[in-house]
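Full entry
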Amino acid sequence: MKKVDVFISYKSEYLEVVEEMSHYLAAAQINCWYAPRDLDSHGAGKSYADEIIMAIDEAKVVIAVLCDEALKSRWVETEVFHALKKNKTVIPYVVGKVQVENGFRARVDGLHWIDAYPEPEKKFAVLLQNIKLILNGTVESRGDNLIVGEMIKPEYDSDYNEGEILLKEKEYEEAVAAFLVAAENGNRNAQLRLCEIFFDLDDRTGSLSDNIWRRMEDLSTQGADYADFILSTRYVGDLEGHADAAVAYLKKAVSSNRIPLAFVRLGLHYDFGLGVKQNSALAYNYYAKAAEMDCVKAYKYIGFMYMNGNDRIHRDEKMALDYFTKGAESGDVKSIRYLIRMFICSTMKDIDKALFWARKAIDLGYDEGYVYMGNVLKYSSVPDAESKMVDMYKEAAMRDVKEAYSALADYFWRKGVHDEAYKYAVQGSKVYDYSSLFFLGQFYEQDGELEKAWECYYKRFLKTHEGGENLGRLFVEKKFRPENFTVENMIGILEFSIANSKVGVIKYLARLYSDDKYGMVNQNKLNKVYAKGAALSEPEYEYKYGLSFMDGEEYNPYKGLEWIGKAASANYDEAVNYLIKAYSGGVYADKDKLGWVKTLNDHGTESC
């Protein structure tokens, strides 16, 4: 028998298509076998059935040319079933209508199809691309087929659809199991859906059975990129001692260049310094790569970088708004959340637009939209806004939206109904609403129960890597000292948190590095903290960062005067007074600049 790369199974009505396909593949040095051509020319005197089985066994790829006639054919069914039994890669190539429902159809439904109907020749290039990948060893030849350049979901995959129904009912274990069956049968859409689910599950992954994780580990050893990503999420919320393992799985997942969410998650690790050295440039790079792959979740994280600013990206509300808008217009609920936040509380405040996007979230079917609408109503002037706000929060709670608990906790606390506020905050913390943990900490702090407040803030920090400023406030301002917790521990938390560029974090870290009573005075580290604050356009830190260049190891007075000038422009009194003295005489005397400083007006700022 001649060398066989590809076996073609088909019904005789489509012989002309098969001949054209064979010629196309042969031009790329791919040897095809199909009957009756190869039976007539190479199999004289031999059993037709034996020759066909031998050809399938020799081939690495079997193309099933599908149409209704083929789905009814016992010969085509036998050939395809034998190929699957022998663990060959089977590529269904659709050339006609496929409306038949039978056992054969059910078996190939789990594979990815190349839909070439009604012009079969137009997809020959896609077919060739996939066959080359398999023959070159880029993709392993086995029963799960990979279609690149063309990836469609079968018209009906029962396991996939069962997964969607179970997910809607929040039956996560059963939903994951159903999607996993579809994924293992080669349904790429199911594989990507699993990645989305595990990206959003957060701590709820801990409720999944060991059986699920064992199956993921087995799939990972077989080279399944989606399993690598999913295994990385096992450590979310418990990254102490496990961050390196999470990063290792993510590095494997991104190597296939087919899991956009793996790039987002790897960006998060660099953004926060989890298992890797914190690096804002690399974080941005991974977020941007995911965005290039049309991953809508990436827009939120890029927008967040511009909203807060960091050591590589200056705070830019317009850029943040642009990215949140891109995400929102693509239907990403988290982007909608932050877009609404900007329209409520930034220099781009626009309550009408905030109301529009809250309504949009509800219309898109996101139950979180009811919380967003309540948040907007809190700042709106619509009639009976407070009553409507509470109704929205209650509706969200009825729909099991976890953020509703923190919203109601905050509302009842402000109304003075503290017992009710505590109940909502406690319940919210039980369902992994970390805003509820924040409010619970706030309530305990205001009631003077600092130990309980610390426990809430610290738990939130360990789970979300946020809230370092709250811990800093208890430690520095309120002088609370947890047992076996040192100044070095506090500095470690604040240094970790400074990647988020929160002003509170900078404030408390600066105190620890500058006050002798903590025994940690370090001018070089203090200057770096000032640089973080200056990057956020905070006048106090622009001034102090500028002063660091006026003397000492980093001597560069003109750079120092530039930073002090920025603080003065914001009417920071100490900066204004310093420049008046500097420009009045001596080395830096400058009448024009002195006149500018003296004419500075207090512009004021609006906060929300």
In short: Residues 208 and 495 are 34 Å apart (CA to CA). Confidence is low (pLDDT under 50) at residues 138-144, 149-154, 601-608. Strands lie at 6-9, 32-33, 61-66, 89-94, 114-115. The chain has 33 helices and five strands.
